[in-house]
Amino acid sequence: NIAMAAQMTDSHRRFLQILMSHGIMEGSEARKLHRHCCEIHKVYYAHDKLDDFINTINVHLQPLFLGVECSRESLDWAEPVVNLAETEITKMASDYAENELELFRKTMDLIILSENGFASSTEILNFADQLKTKKMKKKEAEQVLKLFVEDKWLSEKNGEYTLHTRCIMEMEQYILSNYQGVARKCNICHSLAIQSQVCETCGIGMHLPCVGKYFKAQTEPHCPHCNDFWPHEIP
């Protein structure tokens, strides 16, 4: 219904409908979907025009306070439609108990304040019996972590947890407000950057992939904001 109301072209409408049914979609799959939608509706397709294609969808969705967003923090993901009018952690209050939300906040602290953007299951579970709202047994905490992964707030691999793309996108304002000095907007793509390089002179930050792309053709890298020498290793 949203897609119909937005009066988009058939190719844009099909892309949005499939994306909404899938939820989070990897960038490679989003590009395949873009090509499929263009070809099936016989419209011009260019492999490097996915961003423009999504921007066109967002123009139509803006009056509905909705939008398709792509995360640069996770490098290669396309985000599902999200309600841009509700992006705070309070959205989770109806789905989780108070002690579960407290465990989630502590997990976010560990991840965002870490050097590599990850927190081990051991680190997280150590908080289970220290919660102020209501203590958890470790087995119970393990189930809660599993639920956070299933609901796409966290991602897990080999016992290491990080923020899922959904969390990065929907909690952007919460993260920027509560982790000032650590989280910032990328100066290049203007999306949330948690793991980034920061200019030592003016303080602007850039995602690592944005750093690599921006300085790729430069023999001597200089900050895009203040033009001082960029002292960090280029990815």
From TrEMBL:
Describe the subunit structure. Component of the Smc5-Smc6 complex.
Q: Where are the bilayer-spanning segments?
A: none
Q: Pfam family example for this protein?
A: zf-RING-like
Q: What gene is behind this protein? A: Nsmce1
Q: What is the lineage of its organism?
A: Eukaryota, Metazoa, Chordata, Craniata, Vertebrata
Q: Which GO terms describe its molecular function?
A: ubiquitin protein ligase activity; zinc ion binding
Which GO biological process entries does UniProt record here? Answer: double-strand break repair via homologous recombination
Q: What's the name of the protein?
A: Non-structural maintenance of chromosomes element 1 homolog
Keywords attached to this entry:
Chromosome, DNA damage, DNA recombination, DNA repair, Metal-binding, Nucleus, Telomere, Transferase, Ubl conjugation pathway, Zinc, Zinc-finger
* Organism of derivation: Nothocercus nigrocapillus
Q: Where is this chain primarily localised?
A: nucleus
Which compartment or compartments is the protein found in? Answer: Chromosome, Telomere; Nucleus
